[in-house]
Specification:
about 325 residues; alpha/beta; TIM Barrel; eight-stranded parallel β-sheet; 15 helices; 8 strands; about 45% helix; binds adenine; binds zinc ion
């Protein structure tokens, strides 16, 4: 990856990642390569002088993300982005990754739902053959694109069943639209397409946003969820329900949710009995990787090897997987001490 984590990673420890945006895995080098291959110029100001993605603040980050994603235009591009990312993950010891893929971004580049899905799926198959890593796809709607687009996306999932498409999610600007507005889309995704569901909440907004998602959407997981830590009753609810939190510590520091590890609630969430996992979110934007997040949990939060393995186990238990595949992956973990 272009931006390597500064902490040494333990590449032998088995890892699993539930929360990474596929378009957000493409490094500046790959984005430039795809733009050149597609004969397109990228928007001014996308990169800093030293070749990183350039953004300040959360909304600017989302815009930079959309601009960079516009270089991913063809089925082959999606295959390459997926294959390259999963190869990096496998080299760091990841045995399982769920990629959030956004057909709405692909559609902006003129690519159909079917071609986008086929590209991502072939990247997964290539990576499995090359590295033995397993992966699944979460089709992800974008909150600031609005509820109508989300419904269209859920319907497309129901019309296009695919063995690697197992989840439906929602990212984007959490402060736009209520979660309830997306209930029809999530109902279709859950009941008609049979997908596991997750939604970003408690990242750019507070505990009310997490409660809004839990009250209105059929989710078993929350993307981030960290600001639930401000509400003890909500923590109890998350712990009792076993809702899996897809925590992305470095992302939260880089987007300014918390100033440093000491202020980040990762350990408080775990101590409250919540099911926590470790995730990279948008690795090159935040200068991290999945291995970097495990290394950060150890160095910045005092996690032992047993705690890191427990996070992998929690991720596999909460993964949107059929039971035989889940069992095969769990069997690759060492016994808990
Ligand atoms: N899309 C890509 N990364 C995101 C994030 N961290 N939060 C919300 N939407 C996103
Ligand atoms: Zn995210």
């Amino acid at each position: 990856m272009d931006a390597q984590p500064s902490l040494p990673t333990d590449d032998r420890l088995p890892k699993a990642e539930l929360h990474v945006h596929l378009e957000g895995t493409a490094t500046p080098t790959l984005v430039r390569r795809l733009a050149a291959r597609n004969g397109m110029s990228l928007p001014e100001g996308l990169f800093s002088a030293d070749g990183r993605f350039l953004w300040t603040g959360f909304l600017h980050f989302l815009r930079a993300y959309d601009d960079a994603a516009s270089a991913i235009r063809t089925e082959e591009d999606y295959r390459d982005v997926t294959r390259e990312y999963l190869g990096h993950c496998a080299a760091e010891g990841a045995i399982y990754v769920e990629v959030m893929a956004s057909p709405d971004h692909a559609a902006l580049a003129g690519l159909s739902f079917e071609a986008h899905l086929a590209g991502v799926a072939s990247g997964i198959e290539d990576a499995r053959a090359a590295h033995g890593i397993e992966a699944r796809i979460i089709v992800t709607c974008v909150r600031h694109f609005g509820p109508e687009r989300a419904i269209e996306l859920a319907r497309a999932c129901a019309r296009n069943p695919h063995p690697l498409l197992t989840g439906f999610g929602m990212g984007g600007d959490e402060n736009r639209h209520s979660a309830a507005a997306f209930a029809p889309a999530f109902r279709i995704a859950r009941e008609e397409a049979g997908l596991g569901c997750t939604a970003h909440a408690g990242e750019a907004a507070g505990p009310d946003s997490v409660r809004d998602v839990l009250d209105h959407l059929p989710v078993s997981r929350i993307g981030h969820g960290v600001r639930a830590s401000e509400d003890p009753a909500l923590l109890d609810r998350l712990a009792a329900a076993g809702t899996v939190l897809e925590v992305c510590p470095t992302s939260n520091l880089r987007t300014g949710v918390y100033p440093d590890a000491a202020a980040h609630p990762l350990n408080r969430l775990r101590d409250a009995g919540c099911a926590v996992t470790l995730n990279s979110d948008d690795p090159p934007y935040f200068g991290t990787t999945i291995g970097g997040e495990y290394a950060f949990a150890r160095a910045g939060f005092g996690w032992t090897e047993a705690a890191l393995l427990a996070a992998t186990r929690t991720a596999l238990e909460g993964a949107f997987l059929d039971e035989p595949a889940r069992g095969r992956l769990l069997a690759r973990l060492p016994e808990a001490p």
